[in-house]
Amino acid sequence: MGDLDRILSVLSEARRRLLRIALVLGPIFGFLLTFELRPITLRIAPFAVPLAYPYPSLFHNVAAQVFLALKVWALPPGVALLNLGVGDSVVVQLEIGALLTVILGMPWIIHEVGAFLIPALRGRERDLLRRIGIPATLLFAAGTLVGLLFLTPLTFRLLFDYVAAMGAAPVLGIESFVEFALLYSLAFGIAFELPVFVYGLTRLGVVRASSWKKHWRGAVIGSLVFGMIVTPDNSGITMLLVAAPMIALYLGGVWFAGRWDSARASPPALAVGV
């Protein structure tokens, strides 16, 4: 098989994997934008179990329900959200639907990406990919939820305290609100992947654990730069709130990498006969 045939074969396989991802993520995205979840209580004496069932609704869909919940959860009392552009509400629903689709479909995405990469990997690389697949998924979901449920409300409270101190009206455009919350949450989801990245490169023998420890200052600077790039405001507060957990996660990854490096370097214990 020539080089051109190999390239075409790889491209064909990539297209097939992307199509498989789209066939799963597409219906999820469509469901989030065309159905709402209506609460219902299932009574099984003596218990009352809260449930929800899907009901077709183009406007009051799951994305809109998540927006309303996020508004109540993240914004301080008294902050008014404004629809500044005619299509802002549509864009907001699309953005929320896209984020939820990525989160819900992440296990399938990782499965398809792994299936695409495995034929080109060696034995230990395949084993590593299988080992870190589930932790990477859980860390991404955990980081996104931590950013969305805890740090985003904290950041809005801090920023609007400055607004109140200036005597300005506490108002915010809905698109700015959602973009801030989503980008901030995604930043934490990506940041939570840092221990897996550090540990994986050490397991593959690309970077020794001692190198991660030696260059910790560069990791601190890189975390600050990452926080500055991904946060959608210029206050500096959000940059520090992203950088601080990244540094802690980096140190955690270095610790796990160091443990594996030490275990590999230590000679196996000899069995002593009686």
Key phrases:
274 residues; two-stranded antiparallel ribbon; two-stranded parallel sheet
Q: What overall form do the CA principal axes indicate?
A: globular
> What profile does the largest beta sheet have?
2 strands, antiparallel
> Span from first to last CA?
60 Å
Helix-strand sequence: HEEHEHHEHHHHH
**Widest sheet: strand ordering:** 1-2
Query: What is the helix fraction of residues, given as a range?
Result: over 70%
CA radius of gyration = 23 Å
Number of strands: 4
Q: Please indicate the percent range of residues in DSSP E strands (runs of 2 or more).
A: 5-15%
Identify low-pLDDT runs. Answer: 270-274
Structural class: mainly alpha
Mean model confidence by pLDDT = 83
Supply the number of helical segments: 9
Which helices and strands occur, and which strands form pairs?
Blueprint: H1 3-34, E1 35-44, E2 47-56, H2 62-74, E3 80-82, H3 88-117, H4 123-165, E4 171-173, H5 174-191, H6 194-203, H7 209-214, H8 216-230, H9 237-265
Parallel strand pairs: 3-4
Antiparallel strand pairs: 1-2
Helix pairs in contact: 1-3, 2-3, 3-4, 3-5, 4-5, 5-9, 6-9, 8-9
Describe it.
With 274 residues, the protein is mostly helical. It has a domain of 131 residues. It is 72% helix and 9% strand. The strands form 2 sheets. A two-stranded antiparallel ribbon has the order 1-2. Strand 1 and strand 2 form a beta hairpin.
Question: In a nutshell, what does this entry contain?
Answer:
72% of the residues lie in helices and 9% in strands.
